[in-house]
């Protein structure tokens, strides 16, 4: 733990070059059940990208995921949403920079809450074979996985994301709380309280830096999480490894009965290019993880 804290401190105090936006979406387009019927609001060096609404296709309706009032509406009804961006984020710009960042605004004002069931977030590390098999998370299994994983948080391989992070609302207002939940291949590995003011935080910007050297299977990735600009997880070791080589599709999933979630201002960008100090610290962390 002390070694990890020292290394994270080195990351924090190292200077670096500016980031480059690969893809962004403000969802500023006309209301539509087809979330990429037009490309209004999309930007970045990769240009316009398609969203694949897998769970909508499986359920026979497109109303669970939709564009409404300039935002991405998910879990719009008594169910859930799961989708992915149709691009494999293993771009050379990410490797050169030493990692990438995913940032997303999440907003929910509903009162129908539960223990693990009601959440919204994103997962990385999806592989091509996994893109066509994921379904809803709340009853997911190894045979029929979701993006995040089963609501019981312990069903192995019930999620296709190598690393999923999202906001989880628990309880019912006025006694609800908000946590950041982290899942790896369907199993919750960490949970951090970020709001317990009774009414429950209805919105927040979830942002994660993913530091990496390689997209090879088994290579280490080190995430750093913030919610509304405040670091989450402290000195906890949240590092994980890629389960498949060169596989980094990004999935988005949510569940909230009736009221749904509104998502906005999605940004996927390179992290500022690391200095020699950062590179050395990251390499040391990889070695420490290998010998744990």
Task: Give your account of this protein's structure.
- The N and C termini lie close together (11 Å).
- Helix 1 packs antiparallel against helix 5.
- By secondary structure, this protein is mainly β.
- It is built from 5 helices and 17 strands.
- Helices cover 14% and strands 37% of the residues.
- The strands form 2 sheets. Strands 1, 2, 4, 5, 7, 12, 13, 14, 15 and 17 form a 10-stranded antiparallel beta sheet that branches. It has a 7-stranded antiparallel beta sheet with strand order 3-6-16-8-9-10-11.
Distance between the termini: 11 Å
Structural class: mainly beta
**Outline:** globular
Q: H/E element string?
A: HEEEHEEEHEEHEEEEEEEEEH
User: How many strands, which pairing sense, and closed or not: the largest β-sheet?
Assistant: 10 strands, antiparallel
In round numbers, the mean pLDDT is 83
Q: What is the share of helical residues?
A: 10-25%
Low-pLDDT residue intervals, each spanning 5 or more residues:
4-15
Instruction: Report strand %.
Output: 35-45%
Number of helices: 5
Cα-based radius of gyration, to the nearest Å = 18 Å
Please provide the count of β strands: 17
């Amino acid at each position: 733990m002390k070694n990890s804290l020292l290394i994270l401190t080195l990351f924090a105090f190292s200077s670096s070059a500016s980031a480059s936006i690969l893809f962004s979406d403000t969802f500023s387009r006309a209301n539509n059940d087809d979330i990429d019927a037009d490309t209004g609001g999309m930007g970045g060096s990769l240009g316009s990208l398609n969203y694949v609404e897998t769970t909508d296709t499986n359920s026979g309706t497109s109303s669970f995921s939709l564009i409404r009032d300039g935002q991405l509406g998910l879990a719009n009804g008594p169910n859930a949403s799961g989708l992915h961006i149709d691009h494999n984020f293993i771009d050379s710009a990410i490797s050169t920079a030493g990692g990438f960042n995913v940032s997303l605004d999440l907003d929910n004002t509903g009162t129908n809450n539960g223990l693990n069931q009601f959440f919204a977030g994103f997962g990385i590390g999806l592989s091509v074979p996994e893109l066509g098999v994921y379904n809803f998370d709340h009853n997911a299994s190894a045979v029929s996985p979701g993006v995040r994983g089963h609501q019981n948080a312990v069903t192995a391989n019930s999620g296709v994301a190598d690393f999923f992070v999202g906001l989880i609302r628990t309880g019912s207002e006025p006694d609800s709380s908000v946590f950041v939940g982290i899942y790896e291949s369907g199993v919750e590995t960490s949970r951090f309280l970020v709001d317990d003011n009774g009414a429950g935080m209805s919105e927040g910007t979830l942002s994660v830096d993913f530091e990496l050297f390689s997209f090879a299977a088994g290579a280490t990735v080190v995430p750093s999480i913030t919610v509304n600009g405040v670091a989450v997880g402290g000195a906890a070791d949240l590092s994980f490894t890629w389960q498949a080589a060169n596989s980094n599709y990004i999935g988005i999933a949510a569940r909230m009965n009736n009221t749904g979630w509104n998502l906005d201002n999605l940004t996927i960008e390179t992290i500022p290019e690391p200095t020699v100090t950062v590179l050395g610290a990251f390499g040391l962390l990889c070695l420490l993880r290998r010998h744990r």
